[in-house]
Amino acid sequence: MLGIKDMNSNFLKVLNQQSAEHTPIWLMRQAGRYLPEYRKTREQAGSFLNLCKNPDLATEVTLQPLRRFALDASIMFSDILVVPEAMGMHLYFSDGEGPKFTNPLQSSLDVDALKVIEPDFDLAYVMQLIRNLKQELPRNTPLIGFSGSPWTLACYMIEGGSSKNYEKIKTWVYSHPQQLHNLLDKVSIAVADYLVAQIKAGVDTVMLFDSWGGVLSEAKFIEFSHAYLAKVLQRIQLSLPANKTPSIVFTKGGGVWLEQLDQLKCNALGVDWTIDIGKARSQTTKVIQGNLDPVMLSVANPSIIKTEVSRIIQAYREANAGDLTGHIFNLGHGILPSAKLDNVSALIDAVHELSQR
Fold first, then answer.
1. Which residue of the set 38, 156, 194, 316 is catalytic?
2. Which residues of the chain have pLDDT under 50?
3. pLDDT of residue 1
4. Most buried among 81, 96, 97, 118, by the most CB within 10 A?
5. Is 166 among the catalytic positions?
6. Which one is catalytic: 79, 193, 210, 272?
7. Closest alpha carbon to 350 in 317, 318, 311
8. Structural domain span for residue 71
9. 276 given a catalytic annotation
């Protein structure tokens, strides 16, 4: 198995603030419904959850985008909601409606009833997936592990699924804050232990998806999201004091809080398309990951995409004293099912070409 120190990876070099041959690129949800081969494998699995829980099929869909595209990193195929499911919540996926819990949390008694997970047992299929991928991935292609942030997982656990206004969890924020803190403490331990298990299984990087952090006011973001991102990162470090595995935090809609996010003990911060990459560069000392609008891959053409890539790279360069060090190219959120394959190829080629050192 190739270790981090032995891996000649542009992605890992940039995460560790080193120079690279070009700006590395990977895509959130790069294994997904925009690929015809993914849709066939998903049909073979019978359901999305079955696909997540089958290490062999999850290995296959993780590898699929790497066979098509010259991506600089791989991200394991899974779902953030496997953690609350392992804690005792009943998860299912409804076609066209996304993930749902049949037993959303409603009281402190529900929080008390949540199970303390043992990741190597309760999420053994994820650990087997990681071991599979470390054997199957092309040489020098690092593997990204991940989890949802405590706040984002709590949103799903209380709302019971996706939400437009987050009224149920915001009822806890404003009317039952201690009850919510108790939940977030419990979820933080689960998330940290899950990521520690992933690191031990062999991932080269871990990423926290704070997908719904941006729905909070600044004060509530600091109290209910940022504080628990910090707790997760701290628990990982305490659990693995010699750990050198780099970490990435992505808060969708968090561009307005980069100075606060900069205080987190992580290597990189993801940003969405609503903040200029140059402005983001000026507000944090960390590696920046982002930030093409994912809709462009569905509605634009290769020429327009190359122009936008050039703009983003140039904006970063100008804000970073003419240097491209410290930038990982990505979308501002996950790739959409409607993305065109030619556009994805054009994006990756443009990033590599325009950022060549």
1. 156
2. 1-2
3. 44
4. 81
5. no
6. 79
7. 311
8. 4-354
9. no
